[in-house]
Amino acid sequence: MKPVPVIELRGVKKHYKLGEVTLKVLKGIDIAIKKGERVGIMGPSGSGKSTLLNMVGALDRPTHGHVLVDGIDISTLNDNELARLRGKKIGFVFQFFYLIPSITALDNVILPMTFSGKKDERRARELLKLVGLEKRMHHKPSQLSGGERQRVAIARALANNPEVLLADEPTGNLDSKSGGEIIKLLFKLNKENDLTLIIVTHDEGICSRMERNIYIKDGEIIRRGGKCIVGGGKDENKVF
Ligand SMILES: Nc1ncnc2c1ncn2[C@@H]1O[C@H](COP(=O)(O)OP(=O)(O)OP(=O)(O)O)[C@@H](O)[C@H]1O
Ligand SMILES: [Mg+2]
């Protein structure tokens, strides 16, 4: 029997209403992602990548179509049930981190555990060690560099031992050395823990190591798989 995809989108559309105007940001997306897969999402600014990631992570509900997490259609769940499912299965690394500024790195990592009822300070410390921040645990976000904040966000995303990690440009704010370390860490978790990785990126180092890449433009998938194409390449115009 074919395994159920860990995440599946069927005909997903997302519209935003701004006064009289309806903005059609996603125009019918179909994707099925298997457990342990590494999938890249690429596309120009404003094409709908972050919106798509929000749908994939069931952070928000589609305007039309269906999102299934482990075969469960999220439209059958109320908001509390959905939050519980998400908290258990999915970790997010947001484009703009969204760390809580008034608490330490350690407390930022502990926070999602509190929501899921399994507060484990030892695990939070281990995760911060894993991302190389054992000496920065008691710093608040404003006392950390951009790369260090990004690493706290990754440790936080892993707090509840998710099956799926979604990351929105996880190396976008980092120099190539810190970016390389983050990539190494994510791929290690994918290999050793069968962690499903879904990453929005413009980074060739990430793109070339994904199992497949999905290219979106104006809210539609315009290409699946094939050679890795990132900004600046001469092939780019053919795609975007
Ligand atoms: N909550 C919202 N309300 C209204 N419009 C939105 C909302 N969120 C996103 N949009 C619009 O939808 C489009 C896609 O936004 P999105 O953030 O998904 O793009 P992106 O591909 O992630 O871009 P970037 O590479 O710059 O991060 C943009 O034009 C944006 O202005
Ligand atoms: Mg974005």
Question: How are the secondary structure elements laid out?
Answer:
Blueprint: E1 7-18, E2 21-33, E3 38-42, H1 49-56, E4 64-69, E5 72-73, H2 79-89, E6 90-93, H3 105-116, H4 121-130, H5 146-157, E7 164-168, H6 176-193, E8 196-200, H7 204-207, E9 212-217, E10 220-224, H8 236-239
Parallel strand pairs: 3-8, 3-9, 6-7, 7-8
Antiparallel strand pairs: 1-2, 1-4, 4-5, 9-10
Helix pairs in contact: 3-4, 3-5, 4-5
Bound molecules: adenosine-5'-triphosphate and magnesium ion.
Adenosine-5'-triphosphate binds next to β1, β2 and α1.
Tally of helical runs: 8
CATH topology: Rossmann fold
Low-confidence stretches: 232-240
The CATH class is identified as Alpha Beta
Ends: how far apart?
A: 38 Å
Kindly describe this structure:
The protein contains eight helices and ten strands. The longest helix has 18 residues. It has one domain: P-loop containing nucleotide triphosphate hydrolases (Rossmann fold). By secondary structure, the chain is an alpha/beta fold. The C terminus is likely disordered. The site of adenosine-5'-triphosphate (ATP) has 13 residues, from strand 1, strand 2 and helix 1.
